[in-house]
Amino acid sequence: MNTESDGGSGGDGEDTGEGTGPALGSRAPRFIRRSRTLHLSWQVAVFVLGLAVVVAGVIMLPLPGPGWLVIFAGMALWATEFVWAQLVLRWTKRKVTEAAKKALDPKVRRRNIILTTIGVVIIAALLAAYVAKFGPVLPWHVGQ
């Protein structure tokens, strides 16, 4: 009945651009896709579970924890059922791959090493100037 969720309808142009990745669409078991009511219930459950995982990841961003990893796990859950999430994950993967290739470029690596070295030298000079002026005493009183 629900042939659009069998994958492949409506997103083939995006999929053939890279030549990788499965067809777009629902990855629910076939017996679930046959029943519209069951498939809709399945999609609601996947959406709620993915939303809970994404919200947990967003909460972890300022707190200790692997926030971005959890957010991408929630997106991966959504991508099992929703084409928009599959497209977002493909776009993210493409951008991360491009950034990794760019970061491994010898010119970019050399520039980053030089900038990091300059930053460390400036911080060390400021720290040395502080210690020379005030001594090794912290600017606040701890435990008195």
Automatic annotation (TrEMBL):
Tagged with keyword Ribonucleoprotein: no
Alphabetized UniProt keyword annotations: Membrane, Transmembrane, Transmembrane helix
Positions of the UniProt region annotated as Disordered: 1-26
Keyword Iron attributed: no
Annotated transmembrane regions: 40-61, 67-92, 113-132
Pfam family name, one: PGPGW
Protein name as annotated: Membrane protein
Organism lineage string: Bacteria, Bacillati, Actinomycetota, Actinomycetes, Kitasatosporales
